[in-house]
Amino acid sequence: MGAIRSYRLRLQRKRWRIRAFRKRRELKCVVDRTDQIRPADILLFCTQRNEKIRLAYFLDYYRKQGVNHFFFVDNDSDDGAMEYLRSQPDVSLWHTTASYRRSRFGVDWLNWLQRKYAHGHWTLTLDPDEFLVYPFCDTRPLRALTDWLDASSIKSFSAMLLDMYPKGRLDSQPYHSGEDPIAIASWFDSGNYTMARNSAFANLWIQGGPRARVFFAEEPEKAPALNKVPLVKWDRKYVYVSSTHMLLPRGLNQVYDEWGGEKASGVLLHAKFIDTFGAKAAEELLREQHYAGSVEYKAYASRVEDNPQLWCKWSEKYINWRQLEILGLMSKGNWA
C-alpha cells in the first residue's frame, strides 16, 4: 500500500473516531454495570430495536460460550426489550431515539462504547440474530479461542454470515422466546457464494446464499455482504467502518492467507428467516433506516407477501461446525 493511501486511511480512521465521540451525546445510559468488568473479561456489543423475543436465547447462548459482560444500545424499542435488558445482571444498557441511519447503522454508537470500555478486551460485535460457531466450539469455550489467538499474536477473527432458514414456509413454525432459532431455521446454502478482494480495505467481500438466490436473483451484485470480523482484541484506536464487514486499521481485515494456506475462521449462523421476519421487514421498510435507501428491505417487501420458500433441493441441514469445515465455509487453520 502506498504512502498516500496509508495517510488517507489514517485520516479516515481519525474522522470516524471523532464522529463517534460526537455521537456519544445521542446515547442515554439506562443502567451502567461496567464496574463489574475485570481486565480479562470477554465483552459483547450489540445494537437492537424491538428484539425482545430473541434476547433470552441470545444472552444464554453467549453466556455459555464465555461472554462476561454485554453492552446494548436500544434504538427506541417499544416491545419491552429495554425493560428486559435492564433487568439482566451482566448487561450495561444505553438508549437512543436518534436515527439509526445517521449513526452509520449503529456503528458510531458502538465505536464510542468500545473506545471507552473495550480497550484491551476481546470483543464480540453482533446482532441479536447472529450465533458464532468456531472450531471446537462444542468442546472448548470462547476463552480457549481467544487464548490461542493471543498466543498466536492474532488480533481479529473472521466469521462468514450463513443465512439459515426452515424447510417450508417461513411462518410454518412459530418462534417463542428462549427457544433456539436454529432448531427452526436449520437449513442453509452450502454453495452459491462469490468472493472478491476489496483493495482499499484489504478485506474479502462475500455474497451469495439464499438472499442472493431468492431476493436478489436478478441483481446478485446487490445482495448483502456476508463477510464479517466480529471478534477483535480491541484497542481504543480501532474503528469499525461498515457494520462488522471491515475495520481500520486495515490490517485487522486480513483474516485470510494470501499465499494459499488457511487461517482459522468461524461462521455466524444467521437466524433472520423465522416467522418474525415478515413483520420485522415491514417495520424496517417503513422506517427507512437501513443501508442504500433500505434496498435490502425493498427486495424483501417485493417477495415477502408471497412467503417464499428459501429451501431448495440443494439445501443442507445444519449438523455442527465440523460439517461447515468440510464444506469449506470455515477453517480451524493450525489450531489443533
UniProtKB/TrEMBL annotation:
One Pfam short name: Glyco_tranf_2_4
The keyword Transferase belongs to this UniProt entry's keyword annotation: yes
Keywords: Transferase
Molecular functions (GO terms): transferase activity
Protein's recorded name: Glycosyl transferase family 2
Lineage: Bacteria, Pseudomonadati, Pseudomonadota, Alphaproteobacteria, Rhodobacterales
